[in-house]
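Dear U.,

For the methods section draft, I wanted the exact inputs and outputs in one place so we can describe them consistently. I've listed the two proteins in the order they'll appear in the manuscript figures. Please don't edit the token lines directly; just add comments below if something needs changing.

First protein:
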Amino acid sequence: MVILDVGCGVASFSGYLLNKNVITMSFAPKDEHEAHIQFALEHGILATLSVITTKKFVFLDNAYDMIHCARYMVHWHADGGKPLMDLNRILRPGGYFIWFAMPVYKKDEGDQNVWKVRVNLTEVMCWKIMARTYYKKDRVGLVIYQKSDSSSCYEKRKENKPPMYDQKYRLNSSWYTPLDSCLLPPSLSDYEWPAPWPQRLNIKPLSLLLEADAEEIFNEDTRHLAALVSDVYLRGLAINWSGVRNVIDMNAGYGG
């Protein structure tokens, strides 16, 4: 499973999942959280900083199996729900969004207004509430949503609001572009859930199905990099790899 943790603090959520065979990207808003992200990276946890609620996430469509947010100060409903719609874009069809926040359980007017807006928005986005609960001992409320994996829900909407993206939009759609008010429809290649981790590492990604020679290119890239790492990096360089955790690949190709 591949997870995005938004508003991650010191990335304790990601740290807990390290031994669960779960890959987690810890993500924090670029305000006062530079020290938190530095802490996470120094402890060997994937983490990054970026702007939230004005620009799109710099991740491609359908990138994450699950998104987790325990930070109430991220106003997903702001600006007509644009931040939540972009979250929908990077969440895989059938994927889950876990939200810890006061509007989930508090009864005061402000929090209830936020919850009502959230309900209306997620309904037109075709998200289903799988669970909503309050842990009295810890004073924590959470809701778990599941994104639809079928286009039928969107087709049944009385109004096309928010509208659906045109499929041709998808190329280079997320590179530092402003938020907008559109939804990404599931395509035929999105219906099949990918193989479990880590088996999916050696299986051609579903997003490459439309390219005629994609599988051959992907397999060749995987073989090339496997040989490079095994024969050169691990054996031919005087590096103590036991002390290396976080590596950034500046020319990743297919990520082999």
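Second protein (the one for the lower panel):
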Amino acid sequence: MRIEILFPHRVKNEAFRDTTEEYLRLSSRFVAADLLVQPLADRQGRLHPTVRARLSDGAGIVLSEHGRAVDSDWFLARIERARREGSDLRFVIGDADGYPEEVDALCKERIALSPLTLPHELALVILAEQIWRTASRVAGHPYHRG
């Protein structure tokens, strides 16, 4: 099982970039988790072929403030299910303008990390932390305490 995060551009905020990289590095002890930096669409708004290919297997989960509210237990159940099924997970984070409509059609799930609208770089940090938290819980590591 692999976890991928599709993110539309290089993380500009150094603190967010370093924190994301650290959480993904920590996660790698338990699960393969990677950040794929790739524009989601071309200048005409068409979904980038690389993104379409990554989402074509139905493993995509798009992050949206309009998505279903989830908590850490949801992440645990979702990652455990993917491990059982031997499937991958791909999380998609849009940029300041959101994401192309075709992403919704290709992704089976739409989730919200918070009822607040978050800057996309902050959403990336929160997602990376939840991947680390969940991977460590699955492995029995004491990081998660509640």
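Candidate sentences for the figure legend, describing the second protein: Strands lie at 2-7, 32-37, 60-69, 89-92, 109-112. Helices lie at 14-27, 49-55, 72-85, 101-106, 120-138.

Thanks,
Y.
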